[in-house]
Amino acid sequence: MYFDGASHKEGAGAGVVFVTSEGEVLPYSFTLTQNCSNNVAEYQALIFGLEMAVDTKQRHLKVYGDSQLVINQLLGLYEVKKPELLPYHNYAKRLMGW
């Protein structure tokens, strides 16, 4: 699963792409309804993808993203310093451990 989020002054969006074991590409994109930081958009993209994986009972999933902050926070290499990221971080961790 690949995930990415983006934010600018006029809005934010996120996308997720699943590649099946048969090589089928399943892209999803969505507009975020709240104005948010790029890091929140990244977390929301990841969470959307993880929720889909849980819903379809995908137990083994390789996850790729370009946000060093999000990835390293989830790996425990970076501390979550911004309070607004903590709920997203905690929820993503729960989804990863389902």
Automatic annotation (TrEMBL):
RNase H type-1 domain location: 1-98
InterPro entries attached to this UniProt entry: RNaseH-like_sf, RNaseH_domain, RNaseH_sf
Superkingdom to which the source organism belongs: Eukaryota
PROSITE patterns in the record: RNASE_H_1
One Gene Ontology molecular-function label: RNA-DNA hybrid ribonuclease activity
PANTHER family: RIBONUCLEASE H, RNASE H TYPE-1 DOMAIN-CONTAINING PROTEIN
Protein name in UniProt: RNase H type-1 domain-containing protein
Lineage: Eukaryota, Viridiplantae, Streptophyta, Embryophyta, Tracheophyta
